[in-house]
Amino acid sequence: MAEERTTALIVAAGTGERLGGDVPKQYRAVGGKPVLRWAVEAMARHPLVDQVRVVIGSEQHELARTALEGLDVGDLIEGGAERADSVLRGLAAVGDGRVLVHDAARPFCPPDVIDRLLGALGGHDGAVPVLPVSDTIAKGDRILDAPVDRARLLRVQTPQAFHVEDLLYAYEEAGRRPATDESTVMLAAGLQVAAVAGDPMLEKLTTAADWERAEAIL
Ligand code: C5P
After folding, report:
1. Three state DSSP letters for 66-119
2. Could you give the CA distance from residue 174 to residue 24 in angstroms, rounded to a whole number?
């Protein structure tokens, strides 16, 4: 049987308010290139990825066209106010097969992470990259409350691998409750998601310090 088509769906429609400034973080440069361009190139380079599609904000056409000049991403897809809206609009444009939903704000995806994800997707409803937690984790506000046992805690990254039909089903089942990623939606729908080894290179760029760290690594 022929391999299913695999699409990398990069969601870039956020406004990146936490960092401030007038350009959303995914369009800012790191190592001389827009963050989104790095993200697209990393996915497009993988031999098992057949196509890359990008979801952008309605005000971001000009920024995206400039950032992606010369790259093959098909028509740009307009996202929505919530992440779920952006992903659902992206899925509608993707069609059948496997999808790797990926944050534009994570520019450097090592190829072996994609190998592990697609390998695990063969035996599970979904697969996500995770890293262990190395800090002490506690609840609290200005005064520490109870510590949390970190032994079973995982930091969940993207890309996240699913079959398009399963993810659509999960979004339908889970309703439109705000979710920070797709694994949350899959679990809410009772589906099983495998955890594979993530990578520190997949850290999301959020703060000015993240930019400095990324520049230093590059
Ligand atoms: O804000 P946060 O960093 O969690 O966003 C994760 C990813 O989801 C980013 O790449 C952002 O551009 C994307 N996003 C989106 N549509 C939204 C909100 C976030 O595509 N409405």
Report:
1. HHCCCCCCCCCEECCCCHHHHHHHHHHHHCCCEEEEEECCCCCCCHHHHHHHHH
2. 29
| Separation of alpha carbons 35 and 104, rounded Å | 7
Ligand 1 centroid – CA 143 distance (Å): 31
13 C-beta closer than 6 A to ligand 1 = yes
State if residue 174 touches ligand 1 by the CB under 6 angstroms criterion.
Answer: no
Q: Is the pTM of this model over 0.90?
A: yes
Ligand 1 in contact with 88 (CB < 6 A)?
no
Ligand 1 contact via 183 beta carbon (within 6 Å):
no
d(CA 182, CA 86): 12
Over residues 44-88, the pLDDT tens digits come to 999 999 999 999 999 999 999 999 999 999 999 999 999 999 999
The CB of 57 under 6 Å from ligand 1? The reply is no
CA of 60 to the centre of ligand 1 (A): 13
Count each helix (H run) and each strand (E run) in the chain, helices first: 7, 12
- DSSP 8-state class, residue 4: P
Averaged pLDDT, 123-142: 95
